[in-house]
């Protein structure tokens, strides 16, 4: 057993093992959790009430999570004198699956984002964010049409953290080199950031999205990028994503361009570059019908923001570089009630770190006020990662019923018609349990 400095390992419970690249889950797994800063204690305690009740009810006491607290952020600073101690990394890597509340990250000065640091350190390269509608909560007209799962690359792009501050000797060296050696014309009073996007990072992210799409019989995978402007980073993300899809999933996919070529080949009028191209992929279907194949397509990032508003039902699985994924996942969440309803996970080859997608909202600390659904639903993702689907179903169905009853926290109450009176965070959790 690995040794920790200031973390107590529960006497009961069993470690999740990894065999042949897959997790092997016991009936009593030890799951580390980080309570979080600000509202973290409120939403973590409420969420654990819901998770524990669903597991108890779903498996009649035969399964149970053994919780093990680990530390990051303000609580870690008090206990260790640092915000992200080695114990925390060690515990997540050892026990394989963990969950966390929101952590505070200072804007501009202070320390680097703890979330980004954890993703980088443990190579949790896929940020996975499913977005779906729960009745009665959304500010848009037809929110039920939006049901997507977003795979956001987690370790590259601007989040790689390669920056030089304006006015420093280091940034002067970078600017001098770029201007004299590379022919650029960067202003001398600039700060500089570098945006790396690699074949490795792109293909492993798209591979994970494609595997999900194949396993869930999804209709499409959309690559979102700004390749019309940044041709060798985001444009390359698009190209490498298509390469991966066709090379590794040829018998499962058809590209949107291939569908267009089919339609052109069959109309007898439109000139095409490859007569009869890819007709065999159609499998006897009508022109433009992909049959059972997953359609792989791409969209420019700014166009995609419009698409998820006006044509959301045309999208299913979405794969994006880091910054685009950050923006788009929040935009999608807004359509179904806000970040309070948006779960998330950071996943590597096997390690899964599940998390609330919103911030720590310190002004609401200890008020028992905020919506815990983001963390509760991140726990549902965790339960499904463990293959405990029955417990996940109980929670999702109970949340929907609770919202239909208009027993909601303040953030949902203010977007629901009819002057809904909000309830407390802890009361919302109890209502969900009652509705299981």
UniProtKB/TrEMBL annotation:
D-threo-isocitrate binds at residues 113, 115, 119, 129, 152. Keywords: Glyoxylate bypass, Magnesium, Manganese, Metal-binding, NADP, Oxidoreductase, Tricarboxylic acid cycle. SMART domains: Iso_dh. The keyword Iron does not apply. GO terms for molecular function: isocitrate dehydrogenase (NADP+) activity; magnesium ion binding; NAD binding. NADP(+) binds at residues 104, 358-364, 371, 410, 414. It comes from the Bacteria. Its EC number is 1.1.1.42. Its cofactor is Mn(2+); Mg(2+). The modification N6-succinyllysine is found at residues 100, 238. Binds 1 Mg(2+) or Mn(2+) ion per subunit. Mg(2+) binds at residue 326. It catalyses: D-threo-isocitrate + NADP(+) = 2-oxoglutarate + CO2 + NADPH. The modification Phosphoserine is found at residue 113. It is an enzyme of class 1 (oxidoreductase). The keyword Lipid metabolism does not apply. InterPro entries: IsoCit/isopropylmalate_DH_CS, Isocitrate_DH_NADP_dimer_prok, IsoPropMal-DH-like_dom. Residues 30-432 form the Isopropylmalate dehydrogenase-like domain. SUPFAM superfamilies: Isocitrate/Isopropylmalate dehydrogenase-like. Homodimer. Belongs to the isocitrate and isopropylmalate dehydrogenases family. This is Isocitrate dehydrogenase [NADP]. It comes from candidate division TA06 bacterium. The gene is icd.
